[in-house]
Amino acid sequence: MKKYGLIGKNIDYSFSKKYFTKKFKSENIEASYENFDIKNITEFLQIIKQEKKLVGLNVTTPYKVEILPYLDQIDKQAEIIGAVNTIKINNAKLIGYNTDAFGFVKSIFTRIENHHEKALVLGSGGASKAVVKGLKSMSIDAKIVSREPQKGAINYSDLSEELMNQYFLIINCTPVGTYPYESNCPDIPYKFLTHKHFLYDLVYNPPMTKFLALGNQQGAKIINGSKMLTYQAERAWQIWNE
To answer: SS3 letters for 197-237?
Structure first.
């Protein structure tokens, strides 16, 4: 029986295991899916060594970037993005891909309006890198907002009323607000949000995060990350079976 799994940290809540287990059952696929919850990326190779039936892996926070040096080959798009969320294991060779950008674009493309020309991307991790790539493919300028801003990024304290009135698309790529910390939310000035704003939260558990709820109160359009996860998961499945 083929085996698939998820590499991450504190992933009991994971979408992937539930999704693929249900898929395998409903489509009569002889396969299993397991969460590999590791405290450090150095544990990754031990899993590969022990789990001989593994043919595919998903990768989630916080290892989408840290996983790169452990791979034998990286797909061109994943290399451009600088993050991997899908690994195909072929003849003991570990090949990295990124399906996050695909899932993000497919989930948001029909919801974009003409005034969504600029986006604030909250967070600078692996998911953020994929979202920025997706935005660029739609000709949307992205500005990263981070607690530890690097070159080209800004700090949360820089989010003035003037800036908020220039960027009408805001995407949360951080885990802030994820269960069981639903009372938390990214530190942006929600009072400046309007009906022209569109808030997208990659967090899907809970479905209505505080980030989205506060945006909704201001009349902003909102969406969570559940559709993105479904699209990226199906793309990963295609890659594993190519």
So the answer is: CEEEECCCCCCCCHHHHHHHHCCCEEEECHHHHHHHHHHHH
